[in-house]
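forwarding from the other thread:

> can someone predict this with PBG?

sure thing
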Amino acid sequence: MVSENHLRPDDLVAPLFVREGIDTPQPIGSLPGQFQHTRASLRAEVAELASLGVPAVVLFGVPSNKDPEGSEAWNPDGIVQLALQDLRDDHGDNLVLIADLCVDEYTDHGHCGVLDDLGQPDNDRTLELYRKIAIAQANAGADIVAPSGMMDGQVAAIRQALDDDAHEQIAILAYAAKYATALYGPFRDAVDVTIVGGGNRKGYQQDVANAREAMEEIRSDIAEGADMVMVKPAMPYLDVIARARDEIDLPIAAYHVSGEYAMVHAAAERGWLELEPVAFEHTLAIKRAGADLILTYFARMLAEAMQ
Ligand code: PBG
């Protein structure tokens, strides 16, 4: 009666992986209960999520072939484009389809952009690739594209590419305050990404020490045309979510990332914590901090428990 916040299935967005060239879903060791899906197993999983009242999914692709530019990311027959078409066929307008928009799953070096002569992502050449991906994803049926590469100017570039290609209605969920955290490890297993030379993303993702700068990132993405903004990871950055909520009236998403999920599972496997109550507490705390949408690998488990 006195609870200020309640969690509902429609607060949740399920991140899902679909892999090209496999016949059976592959379990992801560091993300218990999560899989690299085949097109068919993805359809089955999404049908289940939709029937549980989860309103949206975000798709990540694992291509068979990676190259320096990540060209499978904008191939009209690339794995995410095919999966988007499948899900659009299955669900019509009853499910929101979000496509993660980046090249790191598709490049052979694992960075979120094409590299310059020094081996660092070339921001502006990368924007050209992002424009092509946005159009491919929109043509395949995405409702929302979610640029996650943290290149400067990516939201403006994508907005313009979509508008020029008669996709004005496609929305942009900007990974705005995305930190160079140590919590993405299991995700990189999930998408078979190793950054070349033991590299990292500190050159383009945010310094974990910074909160004010996160607000600058959020403001600039909104000025460039973002329809929604994201804070990522979630639990260690509740202050950033709360700050964003104070200032921003657009929808705010928070991504409870792979490492956050894996920690809870690992402790639960040892009998040190109870899985479901901790998952609920994390998710409700993220909502309390001010998030409207929570991307979480716990989406299915939580939605099942809420039926
Ligand atoms: C980049 C991307 C990453 C995640 C989502 N999009 C990884 C990264 O930046 O290295 C991480 C999500 C997670 O850890 O659950 N395309």
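The two ends are 19 Å apart (CA to CA). thats all i got for now
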